[in-house]
Amino acid sequence: MRYLGLTDGDRRAMLTAIGVESIDALYCDVPAAAQLAAPLDLPPHAGELAVQRQIAALAAENRPAGTAACFLGAGAYRHHVPAAVDHLIQRGEFLTSYTPYQPEISQGTLQYLFEFQTQVAMITGMEIASASHYDGATACAEAALMARRITRRPDVVLSGGLHPHYGAATATNLQFLEGDVTALPPDAEGAEDIAAAIGDGTACVIVQNPDVFGRLRDLAPIADAAHAAGALLVAVVTEPVSLALVRSPGEMGADIVAAEGQSLGNAMSFGGPCLGLMATRERFVRQLPGRIAGQARDADGRRGWVLTLSAREQHIRREKATSNICTNSGLCTLAFTIHLSLLGEDGFRRLGALNHATASRLADRLAAVPGVALVTDRFFNELTVRLPRPAAPVVERLADDGIFAGVPASRLYPERGALADLLIVAATETNTEEEIDRLGTALEGALP
After folding, report:
1. Are strands 403-404 and 291-297 parallel, antiparallel or unpaired?
2. Domain span including residue 130
3. CB under 8 Å to 151, separation ≥6 — which residues?
4. pTM of structure
């Protein structure tokens, strides 16, 4: 009876129990102007089979990434997820669990959060990590707020290589606070001087690596410049598989790392589901938003798990909270943890090497297409090319031929006409040599 509507008898019994004569009487305090004079123009209710058919027809209009040669990236990446990941996360004790408000009876949840934190700290090269955040973009905004608290400065500088959605999320979170958010122009060529934008009031500079155009950056000089001015460096990573090969943000001097974890254990699924990663230096732990699961011993000396720090506002007074984003994407976190555990350190490095090798083959093939020029000279598994015509129509044409050719920069920067001919393409272990050649051949046919 869970999904069936009420009968007339049910309604009469409920109205009698609460002491009103009719359903209309329940709305006596709602102004007439706010009430509908007639039902909405929607289809009438239908049987379950009819509804399933209609929804299936709507779903069939979508083109899942797995149905075509997929070179999409720009913040969400298609990787192979072992079957064991989905099998394990669908166990009832994981699938139905949520935030451990009563930690002593959530030992399994706390243990995998502890393992997750350990993994994140290791791959980012930082000393401590918190339990998951909502997604990478909100983790980026949280990092900016954290840097403001640490430095007691108001201003934030955003690199031109930062994903614009991350920049927009950060600006939205800071819009009613004192201080300026300075977003440098999009930097497809890797020519920006972010150090020149650091001022006396700068709390942090936020730099993505690899950046939104796929370019790898050496964060060490930026970290030195920020620290010399009394500011912090926030490193953003949208493709965590890159951390298998690229020097970690911690090694390059980052103070805070905000990242997206979708690539490990989680499918693209129309841009999600996502999970935010966040790590920092131990001296900043009291300002780290979210939760930290810790290890302890009970009265009998047995190992157990506790919430060591809980700084979200549902745990403590709002004015003392370091975060008001209460969703921690727990199931996505578990998927990340299982996938990385299955890979192990050696497997993670091999996965990174395979991604880079595949992207290198893609770069060589695209460079051989007449009129196509490589813009990104240092990359992991994503790069940007310049086409001899606007990229968006080319992408649409190739999609009709069963190739998801990448993300036009104009989709991320619709107001920047000068970027209209840029195409951001990504290659992972899921792309075959045949698919890479198909993309090159299709581009040769689509370009003048």
Report:
1. unpaired
2. 83-340
3. 203, 204, 230, 231, 232
4. 0.88
